[in-house]
Design goal:
Blueprint: H1 12-20, H2 28-38, E1 43-46, H3 53-64, E2 75-78, H4 82-98, E3 103-106, H5 113-121, E4 125-128, H6 130-138, E5 149-152, H7 155-160, H8 164-171, E6 179-184, H9 190-198, E7 203-206, E8 217-223, H10 229-240, E9 243-246, H11 250-262, E10 267-270, H12 276-287, E11 293-296, E12 311-314, H13 321-328, E13 338-344, H14 349-359, E14 365-366, H15 393-402, H16 420-435
Parallel strand pairs: 1-6, 1-7, 2-4, 2-5, 3-4, 5-6, 8-13, 8-14, 9-11, 9-12, 10-11, 12-13
Helix pairs in contact: 2-3, 3-4
Length: 437
């Protein structure tokens, strides 16, 4: 049976906003969670990226958040990345406008001025990254005493990025009788602990992405030597057109983007070490089609919603099943077909085979075969390419040392890197060995 949004209990004025946007029928996760959320129940929603979670919790927040006083939001939505916070805000704003509610996002990487001015004027629905929100609370710019509904979006990603301690501190500052909605692609470990601690008898729902929103995605896992990966990647780009490439470290992203640009293939680089305006420009250059390649760390695996991405390339294999799912989910969206290619060096063969078993994938490690990708598509090269900023030396050394497992601040930025002291100690140890001390 096909439901409408009004069938789910969505108020007519909000349903009308969705209709004007061309959103006529709810996706499965919306059908499952919206009625319970509108009744004020705590909800756990498990669904993959791109399945419609934002509209599900956005409807509940807009429908139920009362008008707020200055500095005292009544609805709080926590998100792991700046890009996701922006995307949520843009999706909710038309709904909020229909009810006279104000929405604003706060996150790190930009100045405080505009964000503090917004919360001082009064924000009903606050979308926030945990680190920046804690900073604003410490400055007495925001209080959470009036929050009636709290939403944790991409909870598993927040766990991966080390944000859950901050999430707990923030939820502790909200009223105990608030409504709490938790949405995630995976529900285990720390996410389950947060649900048990901060939700009251939550209703659980799980839904897969609707078939109409996911195209046919073909997966190829190719064994290739380290020194041959860049040339192979260029051939993949020339054959597929629009590509998101994932690397393990920020330095790897910068280095690869630089090599692609030098080869005449326009590439933008995106990672947590770049300023927000740089990240915005990189994403805009890619989404507009000016640059055919976006090279990114896993910070881009969530919160970036770009349709018509022809191919995702795991230039460095993902660390775990969740990263594979969220990286690969950037292609095959909005009913389009997609391609996923994982490049595997000898040292990664065993972990990748284990990962494929966990994913229950029938993909096999094989030699590269570009013919499997289909016909060559023209890639326009723009002479005015996005400049690539080389990472500082200490930062590159830290990335190599951490192998993609670096700790992060709660605003998504890396923690301080080992500097002169660590380098000096290493030199001292080498000198002692040399003189036989």
């Amino acid at each position: 049976m096909q439901f409408s949004f009004t069938d789910l209990g969505v108020p007519a004025d909000l349903a009308a906003v969705l209709t004007r946007q061309g959103i006529e029928a709810p996706f499965p996760i919306q059908t499952a969670t919206v009625p319970d959320a509108l009744q004020g129940l705590d909800v756990i929603g498990k669904a993959p990226t791109g399945s419609g979670k934002t509209i599900a919790f956005g409807l509940a927040a807009v429908a139920q958040a009362p008008a707020a006083k200055p500095k005292r939001p009544t609805a709080l939505i926590l998100a792991p990345t700046r890009e996701l916070a922006d995307q949520i805000t843009r999706a909710i704003e038309p709904l909020a406008a229909a009810r006279g509610r104000r929405v604003a996002a706060v996150y790190g990487g930009v100045g405080y001025g505009a964000q503090t001015n917004a919360v001082r004027r009064g924000v009903d629905i606050l979308v926030a990254c945990p680190g920046r929100l804690e900073d604003l609370i410490d400055k007495n710019e925001v209080g959470l005493e009036d929050v009636r509904i709290a939403v944790l979006d991409e909870a598993d990603r927040m766990a991966d990025m080390g944000f859950l301690p901050a999430v707990r501190r923030l939820l502790d500052q909200t009223p105990e009788d608030r409504q709490t909605l938790l949405f995630s692609a995976t529900l285990d470990g720390e996410v389950e602990k947060v649900a048990r601690a901060y939700q009251r008898d939550p209703v659980r729902h799980e839904a897969k992405a609707e078939a109409r929103s996911v195209g046919d995605v073909r997966t190829f896992v190719w064994k290739v030597k380290q020194e041959a990966r860049v040339d192979l990647l260029i051939d993949i780009v020339l054959r597929t057109g629009t590509v998101i490439v994932f690397c393990r470290t920020r330095h790897g992203v910068d280095r690869l983007a630089k090599k692609l640009n030098a080869a005449g293939v326009g590439a933008a680089n995106l990672h947590g070490g770049r300023a927000q305006n740089q990240r915005d420009r990189a994403l805009a250059a890619f989404t507009s089609g000016r640059l055919p390649v976006l090279v990114a760390t896993d910070v881009a695996a969530r919160g970036i919603h770009v349709d018509q991405v022809a191919c995702v390339v795991h230039f460095d294999p993902p660390a775990d099943k969740a990263d594979w799912v969220h990286r690969s989910g950037r292609t095959g969206r909005a009913g389009e077909d997609g391609i996923v290619v994982c490049l595997v060096g000898k040292q990664d063969e065993h972990p990748v085979r284990k990962l494929l078993d966990q994913l229950k994938s029938d993909a096999q490690l094989t030699a590269p075969d570009l013919e499997l990708l289909g016909d060559v598509k023209p890639v326009r090269v723009d002479a005015k390419r996005e400049p690539v900023a080389e990472a500082p030396k200490a930062e590159r050394e830290w990335d190599r040392h951490q192998q993609g497992k670096r700790p992060v601040h709660t605003d998504g930025a890396p923690k301080a890197k080992p500097g002169k002291h660590a380098a000096a100690k290493a030199r001292h140890r080498r000198r002692k060995r040399k003189v036989g001390a």
